[in-house]
């Protein structure tokens, strides 16, 4: 092991290295074979007798021998007085378990030793590298302990999978890097590393991000990460013994599956693992075909749309623990969903709650879910605004929630083609002004465009140094908004901006939650403002209400006790889904709210309650 020369009592070791000696010269090389230190003038006897625990200065680097050193001339000589049989050598932890702040992994139980230590090797403490420990916050230390117990099979018999379902911004990547590094270098039995190589599968846009994260937390000297892209082919990884981590996209995995299957991985990490929400898709089948049973899914949204998707990711990390898909649907999914219908009976509600609690208890052994609340004290304030925008007169005539420019373009294109469907659009073109052109847009044609324009102007005037991010799920909408900017998506950190506008919303709440979480995370210094724009009285409000219901379903299983009352629309609500309601806010009416809709909150006091002298503060609309 080596580190920069220091007089500190507790050394901050940088990583492993190889010491090459020739006569009175010594060269220090990192694990990639690069020279990192060189010295000369040593006594040959000193270099030849270097033993475990002894230190040496090599070109400004301090080196400590971590294994008993045997000179090349003595290799293979059983009669050498300093040699001992391997089983007699003392196994020591890689790092000091008694050092202040040391993070020591749990020791295996007697049952675990009986099942996993057939050779009877001595049990050694696994201690997280102090270089990483200094960066870990309390919840991340707990997360690393959880992941280690799961993948080592210490939480449930024959189960080696885990789902780290922390909300965005809690450091799932850092916890994963720490887990991978620990397993690559250490193990509880004789100190033998648990994994020789680690596979990280991630969306294509994040492949390079993962490579950068490993370098950020460990440095390039300690670990060699191979990222598959156009310039780095999988064949290079297969031929090189230097790389211990392979980072590949889900799409590239399918193309290179045959080559990936040749590698023995000790750990598989799937980032944005909710992509595996359907066990029948090719990606899930490809990953399941790998022989590695230590599988970790990272996702901030373990339940996105329904409980079948939840079953799929559980089945991937710990196959068979919930039984067959049919049994799961009958025992858990159907009773839980029935209990959340507005028309459910008391018996159905009680049964559903019991099954939800049972499912949460069973999966809770290997799912860890922490919310943003635990790091709020590290972050600046955040204000969420849901803005209900009045439709423009043109939108009311069209009874459409799309941007008029998009609709005009579609109608004109289909009529010009003489499409069979053109009859559906008969009469719509005539509603547009004669001067209307879809080449640009007039903010007066859309209620949301008016709000967005005024909002960005106000931000620029009040806080000239603040930056704003405008997010949309649709590329054609972005084409119309190209005068403003756009960013978002998964895994991105946009803390340079403190205002985020979600221009349109998605049926899947996970997509919106991820986009909104990009600016309120570690590194953010300013107060964050999140604006969600909805056209009042339209389908967008119904989508918003559906999102609330889906998040309630997630709360029923993953965040037990945080569920919403119901998860479905009634029949009449579904029938009315696409109608345009003349109202300032349909959601406001459904809540039976008595506020004046100007951002202030009016105090409502029951006759038998004592009136408080404390004023009611104004708050941002939710």
Q: How many helical stretches?
A: 21
CATH level-four homologous superfamily name of the largest domain = Tandem AAA-ATPase domain
* Estimated structural class: alpha/beta
Global Rg: 30 Å
Mean of pLDDT: 79
Could you tell me the number of beta strands? 17
The percent of residues in helical segments reads: 25-40%
Q: How many structurally independent domains? A: 3
The CATH architecture designation of the largest domain is 3-Layer(aba) Sandwich
Topology (elements, then pairings):
Blueprint: E1 2-4, E2 18-22, E3 25-29, E4 35-40, H1 44-48, E5 55-58, E6 61-64, H2 110-116, H3 130-133, H4 138-151, E7 161-164, H5 172-185, E8 198-202, H6 207-218, E9 225-227, H7 234-239, E10 245-249, H8 250-255, H9 257-260, E11 267-270, H10 282-288, E12 295-298, H11 307-317, H12 325-339, H13 346-363, E13 367-368, E14 382-389, H14 393-398, H15 404-417, H16 447-462, E15 468-471, H17 475-480, E16 499-502, H18 509-516, E17 528-535, H19 539-557, H20 571-575, H21 586-590
Parallel strand pairs: 7-12, 7-13, 8-10, 8-11, 9-10, 11-12, 14-17, 15-16, 16-17
Antiparallel strand pairs: 1-6, 2-3, 3-4, 5-6
Helix pairs in contact: 4-5, 12-13
Protein name: DNA repair and recombination protein RAD54B
GO molecular function: ATP binding; DNA translocase activity; helicase activity; hydrolase activity
Domain Helicase ATP-binding: 153-320
